[in-house]
Amino acid sequence: MATTELTAENFTSTITENDIVLVDFWADWCQPCKRFGPVYEKASNANPDITFAKLDTEANQDVAAGLGITSIPTVMAFREGVLVFNQAGALNGAQLDQVITAVKELDMEAVHAEVKAARQQESAAE
């Protein structure tokens, strides 16, 4: 399955309109990013039920900065619109497979409850 190229225009809609989205934050000058690319592509082909996306941090600096990307490659996983994984550094194939399995197995009812509780706590603190 081909990866989706993310931009400021389609980032939010891609995250909210797909159940599971993995995002590879990269740049053309980044050698670890180039080594991670084939690993990411292989996982994309093996998991057609997941949306695999890439965001060029050079072309989309505002998006990357807004998400706190300070090191690349960074992989983020979103499930049902919730950020559930965020790690800088290239993963090998086995590590990426572990992330994918963990994201698929998440109890999203519990995750949504945790997010709701955290938001309520933040509101109460203001």
TrEMBL record:
Keyword Transport assigned: yes
Molecular function per GO: protein-disulfide reductase activity
Domain Thioredoxin residues, every copy: 2-105
Alphabetized Gene3D superfamilies for the sequence: Glutaredoxin (3.40.30.10)
Keywords: Disulfide bond, Electron transport, Redox-active center, Transport
Domain of life: Bacteria
One cellular component (GO) term of this entry: cytosol
InterPro entries for the chain: Thioredoxin, Thioredoxin-like_sf, Thioredoxin_domain
Record family assignment: Belongs to the thioredoxin family.
Protein name: Thioredoxin
Species in which this protein is naturally found: Auraticoccus cholistanensis
Taxonomic path: Bacteria, Bacillati, Actinomycetota, Actinomycetes, Propionibacteriales
